[in-house]
Amino acid sequence: MLKDFTVANLLDLNETIAAELFEGKTYPWEVLPEISDFIMKLGLTLNPSEYECKDGNVWIAKSAQIAPTAYINGPAIIGKDAEVRHCAFIRGNVIVGEGAVVGNSTELKNAVLFNKVQVPHYNYVGDAVLGYKSHMGAGSICSNVKSDKKLVVVKDGDEKIETGLKKFGAMLGDHVEVGCGSVLNPGTVIGRNTNIYPLSPVRGCIPADSIYKNAAEIIKKN
């Protein structure tokens, strides 16, 4: 049921600097059009003894590790103790949480990564929210535009919600594990503590505490 995929049921707001962004929202994708303005507002409040502002709209925690080959376009906030590795490409409108890892050749755009998220190898994460300690295996991506370019609809069985969004990557609850090479299609929402098998094409709403083998085989964890 779609009520299982609300902000409250997916995400621990104590594990993000962006908690205020989610206030008053029922579903996490409602924040996507507001990320850019929120970063600009929040960045101005960050303690300059802890964050360095670059180019006017990129705030990087002084404890973060940023590879010299990484590219960060603003607005963006890189949290404390985060690691942005070789050739990472942050295109803008991105919040990288504390202790998060953005890896080799990973591309981020209009996304919120909660604390300790890992997107460490060849990942694309666009128009997405990744919950606390969620992890995307090597080569897994969030596909954010439908092939027919129509607006994204979130579906769970016979229930559906018209999002009004053309670009919608994926919403991952806390502690979600996405296997290597998987594609999360537009409108994918994955509940807390769920594992996605490698090489999976995923769409729709996947229940919490599950193992996703394929669309016809979703097993509840013991």
How is this structure best summarized?
The protein has 222 residues and is mostly beta strands. 8% of the residues lie in helices and 36% in strands.
What are the key terms here?
eleven-stranded mixed beta sheet; single chain; five-stranded mixed beta sheet; mainly beta
Overall description:
One of its GO terms (molecular function) is acyltransferase activity. Pfam families: GMPPB_C. InterPro entries: GlmU-like (IPR050065), GMPPB_C (IPR056729), Trimer_LpxA-like_sf (IPR011004). The protein has 222 residues and is mainly β. It has a single domain, classed as 3 Solenoid (UDP N-Acetylglucosamine Acyltransferase, domain 1). Helices cover 8% and strands 36% of the residues. It has three helices and 25 strands. The strands form five sheets. Strands 1, 2, 4, 5, 7, 8, 10, 12, 17, 20 and 23 form an eleven-stranded mixed sheet that branches. A five-stranded mixed sheet has the order 13-18-21-24-25, with no helix packed on it. A hairpin with a 2-residue loop joins β24 and β25. The longest helix has 9 residues. The protein is globular and about 50 Å long. The two termini are 21 Å apart. The model has no long low-confidence stretch (mean pLDDT 97).
Helix content: under 10%
Spans of 5+ residues with little confidence (pLDDT < 50)? none
| N to C succession of SSEs | HHHEEEEEEEEEEEEEEEEEEEEEEEEE
By CATH reckoning, the class would read: Mainly Beta
**Major beta sheet, specifics?**
11 strands, mixed
- The gyration radius over C-alpha positions equals 16 Å
